[in-house]
Amino acid sequence: MAVALMVGEVGFVGKATHQLRWGTVALTLLFALEQGINWLRSRNRRLYLRASGLHVSVAVGALVMMGLLLLTDPEAGAYNKVSLLFYVAVQGAIFCSLSLRALKHQARLTALRIRPGWLLIGSFALIIGIGTLLLKLPRAIAAGEHFSWLDALFTSTSTVCVTGLAVENTAHFFTPTGQIILLALIQIGGLGIMTITFYLSTMLFHGMSMYDRQCLGEMISEKHLAHVSHALRFIILFTLSSELLGAVWIYGALPSDHGVTERAFQAVFHSISAFCNAGFSTLPDGLADSWVRGNVSLQACISLLIILGGMGSLVIRDLLLWFQARFQRLQNPASPRVRLRVHTRLVLTVTLILLVGGALAMGVSEYLLFKGQENGGRWITAWFFSATARTAGFNTVDMGGIGPVTAQILILLMLIGGSPGGTAGGMRTTVFAVAALHLWNQLRMFPQLILFRRRLPDMLGPRALVVLVLTTAWLFVNLAILRQLEPRVEGASLIFELVSAFATVGLSLNLTPELSDGAKGLLIVNMFVGRIGLMTLLTSLVPATRRRPLQYPTEDILLL
After folding, report:
1. Torsions phi, psi of 455, nearest 5?
2. What is the pLDDT of residues 306-357, one digit of tens each?
3. Residue 64 in contact with residue 45, Cβ under 8 Å?
4. Closest CA relative to residue 222, chosen from 50, 421, 442
5. Residue 451 bridge partners (DSSP)
6. Are 291 and 399 spatial neighbours (Cβ–Cβ below 8 Å)?
7. Rounded to whole angstroms, how far apart are CA atoms 510 and 506?
8. Strands (E), 62-153
9. pLDDT in tens, 14-28
10. Which string of b and e fits 180-203 if b means at least 16 CB within 10 Å?
């Protein structure tokens, strides 16, 4: 009922009508009556107030708020929008209270022993479906515009999977209500609905079981089950704090010729979109818009948020612990020495190489081999290209005007993508590095994987090669289908669009709005698979063997 009232007010009517007004009164009375009955039926009423104090406070606050609202005239006009805000606040508070109570039953879901991959797939599919319905609300799009169900599904998938491909101009096509819906989907998609659910359940009710830790550990790329709770708390806090600081920086970087409200909204939207590597922008031409053109400070903040979100919160956590240990050793030399994990070192090394190498390569390809566009300077533009290709999707120039060699470099960077545990997509930096090292070792006939004076597990190299081969095969098959669906489009443009969708980047050579319905459907599948991971999908579909493998005699075959 609370959801229906909020959707009706915000998505359809846009004002507090007589029916919605009394519907909210009925909702508040029912919720308060339920809390009162539960309090009267409880054996220990003081203990009940202590355990359910949040819900009781919501009931009391909703009653007080509704009492004040009933004293106002619903047709007052000047403050009808303010009244609508208070009505939505009451409905939202009751809905949140009921949702938190529902989290108590989260253990029943994990008790079903559903494979973590299916939980991840199901949670993303659920949010995409809800997002599609919300984007179809009449007040989500501008008056007179038409939004098909397929385009709504495409946009919802692109936001939840933090891709950034868009079939319509976000600034002009969507109303402020629609843009807020997009922002909420980006935030939920970036963190993951299961991550948010487990976090709230742990913080508000009880700790996680071992199976909960196993499920969540696979979702956030944390192998040590004892560290899952701390890692989960750090992910949430680091994400929110980074987005908040980013919003403050962007607000200060934006020109002051717009109002405070407009600048604040743009700052919050772009901060969340950048950290989650979504690439959506509420400016008409993205970061190439004339209002922010040449704004180096804005580009620096956006690129920093992209890099932080793409590296992963667990890498940042390991770095902070290392710096803390080094500081303690300066104060007390006898304190134990802490070493960065191999994973952290590898992510930092590969990220630095790709960022600097990508910027140099695109500086040469775009400005020496081609007379490319620039925004804030040639090397600033090349650096931003290198950063945004790490699955972010922001553009500071018209992507339809880039050089052909630059497009090929972007395809490679998009395919490699970000790092495990972050908001970025792609094949992952660690997969690329380990696969390359394994191939080099095979050429040298060296049997072991050694990184930073540490030996990696023997199966890690072949597993990285499996991901590389499966990704290539997946893209090859999908490209063949896409060429049949779009026979008039150049093959290079189709490859760029497909890799951008699969790697959840969002960069486009201005092709997305022109695609056929079949091609859009194929990109929807690729965005979804790219976000949850191809290996996650395949391992969830293939049943795990429970039989103990037999030891057979060994015999060699010829390969070359």
Report:
1. -90, 130
2. 998 888 778 888 888 888 888 887 888 777 777 888 888 999 999 999 999 9
3. no
4. 421
5. 454
6. no
7. 11
8. none
9. 556 677 777 778 888
10. bbbbebbbbbbbbbbbebbbebbe
Using CA atoms, how far residue 462 sits from 89, 170, 230, 468, 539, in Å, is 53, 42, 31, 10, 16
Q: How far apart are CA 194 and CA 333, in angstroms?
A: 42
Contacts of 495 (CB under 8 A, 6+ apart): 411, 479
Q: Which two tokens stand for residue 113?
A: 């022993």
Residue 281 has pLDDT above 50, yes or no: yes
What confidence tens digit (pLDDT) does each residue in 480-530 have? 999 999 999 888 899 999 999 999 888 888 888 889 999 999 999 999 998
Question: Which tokens sit at 142?
Answer: 């501008």
Q: For position 78, what pLDDT does the model report?
A: 38
Task: Give the integer Cα–Cα distance in Å for 499 and 505.
Answer: 8
What is the distance between the alpha carbons of residues 262 and 266, in angstroms, rounded to a whole number?
A: 6
Mean pLDDT of 471-480: 93
Count of Cβ atoms closer than 10 Å to residue 378 Cβ? 16
The angle that helices 116-135 and 517-532 make with each other, rounded to 10 degrees, is 140
Total-model pTM: 0.82
Six-digit token string for 152: 């709504």
Picking from 456, 429, 430, the residue whose alpha carbon sits closest to that of residue 441 is 456
Q: Per residue in 204-223, pLDDT tens? A: 444 444 444 555 555 445 55
Which one-letter amino acid corresponds to residue 548?
R
HSE (CB half, 13 Å, CA atoms) of 107? 10
- How far from 3 is each of 53, 99, 187, 350, 540, CA to CA, in Å? 23, 11, 20, 46, 33
Exposed, middle or buried: residue 330 (CB in 10 Å: 0-12, 13-18, 19+)? exposed
The neighbour count for residue 291, using CB atoms within 10 Å, is 14
Strand 450-451 versus strand 454-455 pairing type: antiparallel
Tokens of 493: 């443009």
Q: How many CB atoms lie within 10 A of CB 494?
A: 21
Question: How many Å is the maximal CA-CA distance in the chain?
Answer: 88
The span from the CA of 527 to the CA of 505, in Å, is 9
Helix (H) or strand (E) holding 455: strand 454-455
- What Å distances lie between residue 417 and 182, 194, 307, 541, CA to CA? 23, 23, 11, 24
Say how many Å lie between the first and final Cα of the chain, rounded: 68
- Owner of token pair 């060296």: 446
Contact indicator for 268, 281 with CB cutoff of 8 Å: no
Question: CA-CA distances (angstroms) from residue 109 to 95, 126, 317?
Answer: 21, 15, 30
Question: Which long-range contacts link 46-50 to residues 24+ away (Cβ below 8 Å)?
Answer: none
Residues contacting 317, CB < 8 A, separation 6+: 231, 234, 238
In angstroms, the CA 541 to CA 530 distance is 16
* Distance of alpha carbon 427 from alpha carbon 472, whole angstroms: 10
Say what the pLDDT of residue 110 is: 55
Contact by Cβ (8 Å): 105, 38: no
